[in-house]
């Protein structure tokens, strides 16, 4: 197997009460695992893809032939996006950005509260299944973007630094149609240390 799920930094129950244990377990062991399994199948069909990292696969996506291209877009994107999602969540998060990251946030959004408000508003309005992201662009500016389905910011030349999964499988067991409540709860788990590490080291 080429790609494997990253180990979670917490137990399934540790994200409660914000995200329930069954949702975390199902999301990780079923949804995320299926993306990983299907990605591996597609990559194994084309020898020239086997040596590439997941980031390289998603950057090269437009040049990959079908049918592997579609599988890597969906399952490779799903694998990578979920890696990002889990890695910035913590039951004991660093509650605020470091001073360096705060300077970059203030330069774009004016304040952390403004960033959160704009991010949550963008996430609430996303139609269908997809993601809202904080990303770093080529000039190290921070922006908020959304992607549909499992499309990945990497393919759009952005480096994601914070990922919010807005597929119903991420919240429906606990929140049903109340997506805004899930978004508000999710902020309690965002580890600003991990976000800062992505911003400064990737
Ligand atoms: Fe998901």
Automatic annotation (TrEMBL):
Residues 3-90 form the Manganese/iron superoxide dismutase N-terminal domain. Its EC number is 1.15.1.1. Signal peptide: none annotated. Keywords: Metal-binding, Oxidoreductase. One of its GO terms (molecular function) is superoxide dismutase activity. Mn(2+) binds at residues 27, 82, 165, 169. It catalyses: 2 superoxide + 2 H(+) = H2O2 + O2. It holds the Pfam family Sod_Fe_C. Residues 97-196 form the Manganese/iron superoxide dismutase C-terminal domain. InterPro entries: Mn/Fe_SOD (IPR001189), Mn/Fe_SOD_BS (IPR019833), Mn/Fe_SOD_C (IPR019832), Mn/Fe_SOD_N (IPR019831), Mn/Fe_SOD_N_sf (IPR036324), SOD_C_sf (IPR036314). One of its GO terms (cellular component) is cytoplasm. PANTHER family: 37S RIBOSOMAL PROTEIN S26, MITOCHONDRIAL (PTHR43595), SMALL RIBOSOMAL SUBUNIT PROTEIN MS42 (PTHR43595:SF2). Belongs to the iron/manganese superoxide dismutase family. Destroys radicals which are normally produced within the cells and which are toxic to biological systems. This is Superoxide dismutase. It comes from candidate division WWE3 bacterium GW2011_GWC2_44_9.
